[in-house]
Amino acid sequence: MGSLHDSRIHKWFATSPPVAWTVRQLRELLIGSLKQGPVPQHVAFVMDGNRRFARNHHIETVEGHNLGFESLARILEVCYKTGVKVVTIYAFSIENFKRSKHEVDALMSMAKVKLQQLAEHGALLDRYGASVRVLGQRELISPDVLMAVDKAVAMTAHNKKAVLNVCFPYTSRHEITTAVMKTVETYSTPIHNLTTPSKRTFSESHITQHIRKQMLEEDTEGGAELPESRSASPSSKEPTGADDGRSSSTSTVINPSEKDDVQNGPTFLDPESISAQTLNDNMMTADAPPLDLLVRTSGVERLSDFMLWQAHENTSIVFLKCLWPEFDLWQLLPVLVEWQWQQKKLQEEQQRVRGRSKVE
């Protein structure tokens, strides 16, 4: 109880007019200094520690989540003022449905109210030109909450300067699975009016030809004798010699029915053209820039099935010990400064590599 009492005294002192004015000026100065360096374009947050904060301060769990929302509003303002274009937050995991019904219902009710507050005309998102996008399994959201979610999305649809991705309810496994399913559907759907007809997707003839080609290449490289099941081309049966300039060769004979299957059947996109970018284009964050920075509070050092696809080799992942309701500019500032320093070192290294390549 003493800790909560001290916290209230601290809050009262911090909100007194002279102190509040000084803090605001200092915050603006620090944010302005951050804007002078490179700014991450996509930042993600795992907002962890609301329940632990509530337990530590002997308050209701729901109140801990409410304080967590206040922290979110502060962080969003810092990010958008600094110049971050996309903020992605882990608002509700699919796994959170395993919590007590009382807590889940409270979180859903709070989502309705808080999204409405964020999206209102003149509110935070409107001031910074940020639109709301909700990523996750919509079918798991109750109709009344879904209506509020869609309303918040519609109210901010005209904002084009920044984006707030709300992952609700979400897991990376579901997102990646959905992206794979979309890719399979796209590549299994016949395409018409192709300038260059592609092979039939996932067809038996195409797979057979591909396997035969690989076997031929392996045998050619290893000098092994070709199996009898493969037919040799006429040129392979002709005598060869060093003086006639000809060499033996082999080729795969394709069954005429297989040719008809490829040439006369429906045409599809070539599955061999599937790449990481193909899956990336089917992710829920396809329109977002690459993930630059991922921050998790509460001291837990795991991603908890969040942004697993988006976290790439240049993503900075930071785990902080503070709980989410305690998270503010003062905790985020060192993280952003460290990220800027890393970017500077990366740019210097890239310049050195380019310089060496020019010399060579």
UniProtKB/TrEMBL annotation:
PROSITE patterns: UPP_SYNTHASE. Its EC number is 2.5.1.-. InterPro entries: UPP_synth-like, UPP_synth-like_CS, UPP_synth-like_sf. One of its GO terms (molecular function) is ditrans,polycis-polyprenyl diphosphate synthase [(2E,6E)-farnesyl diphosphate specific] activity. Residues 217-273 are annotated as: Disordered. This is Alkyl transferase. It comes from Pyrenophora teres f. teres (strain 0-1). It comes from the Eukaryota. Belongs to the UPP synthase family.
